[in-house]
Amino acid sequence: MNRKNNFFKDLIGLLLLFFFLILFLMSDTLNNNEMLNDIPRAWINVNTIFLSIVIEAIPFILLGVFVSALIQIYVSEDTIQRFLPRNAIVALLPAALLGAILPLCECAIVPVVRRLIKKGMPLSVGVVFLVAAPILNPVVFASTYFAFRSETTNTILYSRMGLAFVLSIIIGGILYSIFKNSNQLRSDVTVHHHHHITNIQKPTFFTRIRDVLHHAVDEFFMMGKYLIIGAFIAALFQTFLDRAILTTIGQNDYSSTAVMMVFAYLLSLCSEADAFVASSFGRQFTDMSLVAFLVYGPMLDLKNTIMLFAFFKSRFVITFMITVTVVVFAAVVILFGFIL
């Protein structure tokens, strides 16, 4: 039943995307057609903004899902653990560094971290990997760079990467001080495990290619749904929200930061694509709020909150959510208020 519902959701998402794409390709014809002159110009503007975000983001999503699929199929949890020290404190820095080379989206990172913790990884190290990997990787670096092609590119890009690296270690340290290495996993959860290459099972080349493509397609459609929803909401906001209200909220550092963090949580965008949605707000919101959006969203959003509650104990998840929210907000305020 769930599979059938997911199929229809994917189908609706694809149909909506093709509908907007047709409108985009036929925009000149539509503009010259007297029968369609009654269509409000605002909706044509929504379509233009929506498509510009989606078209820019899709190449990075495709790159991200294929790299993620290769890692999922070829890199086992045992391989990852060999690069991490067993000591919980000593391993915080290597965990953040490892997150910088493994482009795993927040959609996929929660079950991976759960499996690593079950295999003996310290809880605090798993937390660092959980919040660092979705941001600190080459795909997200590239998408952020191309999304902000202006004089503020370096500020937003390096603020995002620098904060993600430092805050992942701080968040891991805080949760270690609270929970130590106690077991915070739910014991009654069964999850699907993706197949990895092992000494026992050695699939053929074509089987590996099939598995990679299957995983990439699944992840692309899962991420694509959130991208389409996020891009559409962003387009509606920019078209219909009163400019005076948007300017008032957006130009105040504290209110704009809080609003963009809530926006990042609810939209649940993929980290490979969120920079393009954030850049569409560049004229209305401050750099400080945009960085908060880009750091907070991949660490904590609606969809990974649901997965966290499914895999981890409620007390741990609530503590994690509060810690991430407070630490990100405070760090962004300190960075832009006293340093930059």
TrEMBL record:
Main location: membrane
Annotated Pfam families: ArsP_1
Subcellular location: Cell membrane
Bilayer disposition of the protein: Multi-pass membrane protein
Entry's transmembrane regions: 7-26, 46-75, 87-113, 125-148, 160-179, 226-246, 258-278, 290-311, 318-339
Origin: domain of life: Bacteria
The UniProt record lists the keyword Transmembrane: yes
Keywords: Cell membrane, Membrane, Transmembrane, Transmembrane helix
Membership in a protein family: Belongs to the UPF0718 family.
Entry protein name: Permease
Species the sequence originates in: Evansella alkalicola
